[in-house]
Amino acid sequence: MTEGESFFRGLQKTSVIDFPKKIAAVLFVGGCNFRCPYCYNVSLVEKTAPCISWEEVFAFLLRRQKILDGLCVSGGEPTLVPFLTDFLRKVKTMGYLVKLDTNGYRPEVLRELLHEGLLDYVAMDVKNSPQKYTTTSGVFPLDLQLLKTSIELIKAAGVDYEFRTTLSTELVSLADIDAMADFVGGGKTFALQAVSSIHSTLSGRKFTPPKQAALQEMRQALATRFQEVVVRAM
User: Class of 7-232 per CATH?
Assistant: First the structure.
């Protein structure tokens, strides 16, 4: 490993919302291959958050084995860190369930983790309709096929999963929601969450959460394609 690759960038000791129906800790990695303009995890994306060593993480997990059901690995983008597979192998030997938050842009990593049985739940962000994905992800050019591959891997893996979208009036319309449903092709769970209007963002811009009526329209549009559609606070 190169210097710095064995570090994490944040730890939330207890969460009852990040891993559905589980009590979990949330572990954050630094760095991301997307530059979403509404992202408020600036210190993670830019890797300025303080480092947390493997030793600290495993000491914590050992102490909490009788309290926590699982561990959610988030970011940043977890699939970028080269130690993820080795780390999750050890986590699984401790009896923890594992949830991965990902943008889906590295399907080769996702495939490996699923093949080894290291994931119990996957949450993949679907940033926008295919036509607006480049603008919303900040990636130029963007390979939509990588995202489509991850979507199909997740749906076929036999683990719990959700697709989710962060909504702002500036970026996502009801027509975009319909296009996203077509792109994903239906499935188990789709989660909608309104953008934060109070945090500083990666782009320095402010974004507006949709009104409740608009959120419900979007939820109804997805309800014919997904078994469950949930609306969450950001």
Answer: alpha beta
Domain ranges, ordered by start, for the chain = 7-232
SS3 of 155, please? Answer: helix
- Give the pLDDT confidence score for residue 234 in this predicted structure: 57
Q: Per-residue pLDDT tens for 134-147?
A: 999 999 999 999 99
pLDDT value of residue 1: 30
Which are the contacts of 161, defined by CB distance < 8 A and separation ≥ 6?
Answer: 121, 122, 123, 124, 154, 155, 187, 188, 189
Reported as half-sphere exposure (CB side, CA atoms, 13 A), residue 233 has a value of: 1
User: Between 7 and 31, whose confidence is greater?
Assistant: 31
CA 197 to CA 45: how far, in whole Å?
A: 19
Distance CA 144, CA 186 (A): 17
